[in-house]
# Entry
Amino acid sequence: MNRSPTDADPLAPLIASVIRADVRAQSAYHVPDAAGMVKLDAMENPYTLPPALRQQLSLRLAEVELNRYPVPSYGALKQAICREQQVPQGYDVLLGNGSDELISIISTACAGEGRKVLAPEPGFVMYAVSARLAGLDYVGVPLRPDFTLDLPAMLAALEQHRPAVTYLAYPNNPTGTLFDAQEVLQIVAAAAPFGIVVVDEAYGPFSPHSLMDELPRFNNLVLMRTVSKLGLAGLRLGYMSAAPALLREFDKVRPPYNINVLTEAAALFMLEHLDVLQAQAAELRAARTGLSARLAGLPGVDVFPSAANFVLIRVPDADKVFAALAARKVLVKNAGRMHGLLQNCLRITVGAEHENAQLLAALAEALQVSSSAPN
Ligand SMILES: *Cc1c(COP(=O)(O)O)cnc(C)c1O
# Structure
């Protein structure tokens, strides 16, 4: 149905009386139209599955009984994840419809008068969005200008705010930084008397290091991952692990049938063929090295180190370069206005070889256009 803006007016009183003021003031999560573009804005794996595997998967999915509800314990899938993802002995996982849902579950379970959520900034925006929707106060602590953790500032903020939840993306989005592991663990230890620390390893497949093994050492550590960046973003499946007693509390908040039967079946199938996705991740890690070096060779481009499947760069004028790239049918993320520390930064997903080549050619042109064009 098409509504012109004036059609909405009769609804205004109803909306004002029903919808929360803070929700009305918010703008919806914006996803740009990528039709016809080289899509390097959303950290997707550019590769599809080999045809033979797709065939097998389709047969598997055809067997799924769509008339039945899922069995809400998801035992087989959880066991496969625990086995394939090195979850420590005696530890279980909780599944979410993407890690976005896990973040909502954490917010709902922890919300309360005066409760706070803390995270370094710039970071993943859903931590703050989800916290505020649940009625939690959100505290952002700036990273250093090189996007490493400001440990003294983090420890001081923990002391001052005593947040129920602290988020650390490891590696971090949108910077690609892999924080120092000892500093992360110091933060976990410092928060132990009053709060949990969620280590978000969404980019784990591209990182040289994981904190999964640390789970048994810290009762307040929550380890969160997703299959999205590994190559299954469309499935919508995230999981988290923590001390069993803590995980059971979060499970009470989870909608009972939150993982649909098609996702469950497809994820089980892909866990049997994890080597395919892991090989793709290895290719992307190698491509990241090549792309970073070529980006650094372009005049006026600063490249930040990345342990993820994207690279953050700084250019002289991000708005102009972004527009010139879009005009050349290359879509990246203009991060320049997301945070003060990200001025003139663009976030570029590592793509397939031909996509990276297209990006590099377009970027070389875009930098020239943007430096010569009048303001
Ligand atoms: C992409 C991303 C997620 C979201 O993952 P989904 O499982 O697709 O919801 C979570 N955390 C970080 C840091 C991300 O960049």
User: Anything to note?
Assistant: The chain has two domains: 19-48+276-372, 64-272. DSSP finds 14 helices and 13 strands in the chain. Residues 43, 98-100, 124, 169, 173, 200, 202, 226, 228, 233, 238 surround pyridoxal-5'-phosphate (CB under 6 Å). The chain has a mean pLDDT of 95.
